[in-house]
Structures are given as C-alpha cells and as structure tokens.
Structure prediction request, 190 residues.
Amino acid sequence: MIVLASSSPRRRQLLEMLGIPHIVDAATIDERQQPEESPEVFASRIAKEKALQVAPRHPERAILGADTVVVVDSATLGKPESPDDATRMLELLAGREHRVVTAVALVRQGHVDERRDVTRVWFRPLSPEEIRAYVATGEPLDKAGAYGVQGRGGALVDRIEGDFFSVMGLPLRLVLELLAAAGMPYSFTR
Prediction:
C-alpha cells in the first residue's frame, strides 16, 4: 500500500483504476513558484516537498507526491484563484498550444526518486461565451490551467501530443516506473 500525498480526486481515481492500494494523506505546503525557477524544476520541487512532508507520518510506507502546471509562452499557470482568474487563463490558452508539466516523486525509507513528463496540448479557438459557460460549471476552479481534460474541459481540446494521464495530473507510466524502482512492481493480479 502506498500513501498519496495529494487531495486530488483525479489522482486518487487513477490509482484506483489501476488497482493500486493506497490511502490519502494530503500535504499542505507553500506551492508558490520561486523567481527564476523553471516550470519543470518547480513541478519537481513541489512533488518532492509534498511526499517529504507526509513521509514522517508513514515511515513504513512509500509516499507518492505529484504536481502539475500548465505553461504557455513564459507563463506558468497553476490552479486559478477565482472565476475571473480561470477566465483569464482560458482566454490565454484558447486557440493555442501549451505544455502540461507533471512531476511525480516517491519517498520510501528516506530515499527520494522523481520523474517528470511534459505533454503538449492544443486548444481549439474558444468564444467568450464558451469560456464563461465553462467557468460557470465550476469545473476549472481546482485544476492547473483552469481545465479538466477528463471532464467538460475535454471539449476545449483540439489535440494532445503525449501522455493523457499526465494532463489529468498523474502520468501512470512514470508512477509504475517509480514503484518498480522502489521494489514494488505493478501486478495485474492484485
């Protein structure tokens, strides 16, 4: 059994989908990006900090931390702070390509291992009415970049190049790599 250091229902859902036994113990850390910190380094740092914060409470278990950011031009987009902020983010993404950076970290018995994925996503052009209607659903308010690809936000996407699960917030291939490297290989028969 692993410990998921995240309150994300999507991450929990993906672990359940694979049948990976887990409990949730969400970390509470400062998730602000440091000046001059690249989006990739930022996501990796946050994923590691989440896992490391929770690890002392579960010394015998492997702790999985994850973080996702959306990058367009030189702007890093986390979760919107308000509906107006979600609208601003979606206006920025509309009709354009962006990158989704998701980092995962596994802490087990003091050892930290980390992986990172970058997936390219293209949004179709969006009208102001579409953006307003989507924001009004409430779906974008707890998601990096203000959209959920696995929900209604999937209607905003033109195409994806890379790992769909990474865009959801948990690159399963990388999680399985981390578990295997920690001596906990995935089994279909669990």
Notes: The beta strands are 2-4, 22-24, 62-72, 75-77, 97-108, 111-123, 157-161. The mean pLDDT is 95. The helical segments are 9-18, 39-54, 83-93, 128-136, 164-168, 172-181.
